[in-house]
Amino acid sequence: MRGQEAGDWEDLYAIRTSTPGALPYIRPDWVREELAEPKRGAWPLVAVAHLADGPRVVARANLQLGSGRREHCATLVLEQHPDFADTAGRKLLCETVAVAEKWWNKRRLEVTLPAADPAAAALFGSLGFVEEARLCENVRVAGELVDEVILARLSGDAAASRSTEPSGHPQSSPRSKPDVRIRGGSSDDWEAYHAIWSQPDVCWGTMQIPYPSADWNRERVRERTPPRFWPLVAEVDGRVVGNAGMSRDEHHRSHVGHAGMMVHSDYWGMGVGSALMAAVIDLAEKWIGLTRIQLEVYTDNSRAIRLYEKHGFKSEGVCRAFSFRDGQYVDALMMARLCRVR
Predict the structure, then answer these.
(1) Helix, strand, coil: what percent of the chain each, to 5?
(2) Among the listed residues 291, 331, 329, the one whose alpha carbon sits nearest the alpha carbon of residue 315
(3) Quick count: other Cβ atoms within 10 Å of Cβ 298?
(4) How far is it, in rounded angstroms, from Cα 177 to Cα 55?
(5) 158, 186, 181: which is closest to 238 by C-alpha?
(6) From CA 153, how far away is CA 239, in angstroms rounded?
(7) Separation of CA 202 from chain center
(8) Res 273: pLDDT
(9) Phi/psi at 44 (nearest 5 deg)?
(10) Is 4 helix (H, G, I), strand (E, B) or coil?
């Protein structure tokens, strides 16, 4: 076992092109560039087998470290050559779990697997990973949309203490509905975004951190312009009072969109969130051609859950200790809306 090196790309390319169900015709350049410039927060390990023709990387485990209110989390991806799955792959996975928990102090480890891969599920299950959610039609394989499952392993205080009961957070009652205008978001909206993100009630229901810096939020809005991300804002009487965003996955998940939204607490119960969600769905399904929109919501945020259910989202499972909020770990409901292209 050792840390990944840029020169391992040829062996990793061989693993990916020999894995059943993998994306075909992978460009070698993609793999080479990925290893040369790993993602921020990535901690990849490899297993090296000493064969007759010399040492060769036969398995790779990438640990993507969480941050912010998911600092206690890490996401695992295990890639292994089919000929070494029961030996090097298992040993590498055990070592990666140990590194995550004993050195990085991660308390939630999660992995997404094909639902029709019992061998992989059994491997992770033998190390204490438990299935939490089934993501319907989450990936395209050989022309078919197939399901995936999320498995997670909890340790330490995340396993011992979690808040899953409603916290008594105040819920808004319906109020008179103003005219809501939806438009595309702009970097010039950063002050309005900052005002929304600074609301304690908004922080409670999202992944925001209390007392955000105006300078940090300004740069955050100005830099968040990836080509597959669509920002929307809701205006009432010319004031931005809510924002939503949708990002689109790539390659064999290009039919999937991830949605998120926030509304200034002064405008809860006035139809702003419903208008934003309707616009997200319209954009995703009628113009971009997405057939799956997914999101996460805390299990005790009943107001948001009702809104999403109203717009056709259904529960797919619960991720335990998904985030850290107000001194406790809190679970999140995985929800998705599926659309059939006519």
Answers:
(1) 35, 35, 30
(2) 331
(3) 24
(4) 67
(5) 181
(6) 44
(7) 19
(8) 96
(9) -90, 140
(10) coil
Domain span at residue 134 reads 2-160
Please give the torsion angle defined by the CA atoms of residues 163, 168, 170 and 172, in that order, rounded to the nearest 10 degrees: 90
Domain count, the chain: 2
* Contact assessment for residue 31 and residue 16, using Cβ atoms and an 8 Å cutoff: yes
Q: Measuring CA to CA, how many Å separate 122 from each of 92, 116, 129, 130, 151?
A: 16, 12, 9, 10, 11
Q: Could you identify the residue written with the tokens 């061998």? A: 119
Quick check: 60 and 96 in contact, CB under 8 A? no
Task: Identify the DSSP state of 174.
Answer: P
Q: Give CA–CA dist 251/230, Å, rounded.
A: 18
Residues 329 and 290 reside in one and the same domain: yes
Same domain, 34 and 148: yes
Q: Which amino acid is at 206?
A: T
Verify that 217 and 295 share a domain, yes or no.
yes
Dihedral sign from CA coordinates of 8, 50, 81, 88: negative
Q: What is the CATH number of the domain that holds 258?
A: 3.40.630.30
Q: Name the CA dihedral angle for 303, 308, 314, 319, rounded to a multiple of 10 degrees.
A: -60
Measured distance CA(234)–CA(78) in Å, rounded? 41
Could you list the pLDDT tens digit for every one of the 342 residues in the chain?
A: 899 999 999 999 999 998 877 788 889 999 999 999 888 999 999 999 998 888 999 999 999 999 999 999 999 999 998 888 778 889 999 999 999 999 999 999 999 999 999 999 999 999 999 999 999 999 998 889 999 999 999 999 998 866 555 454 555 566 678 899 999 999 899 999 999 999 999 999 999 989 989 998 888 888 766 778 999 999 999 999 999 999 999 989 999 999 999 999 999 999 999 999 999 999 999 999 999 999 999 999 999 999 999 999 999 999 999 999 999 999 999 999 999 765
Burial class (CB in 10 A: 0-12, 13-18, 19+), 271: buried
Q: What is the pTM of this model?
A: 0.90
Q: How far apart are CA 243 and CA 72, in angstroms?
A: 27
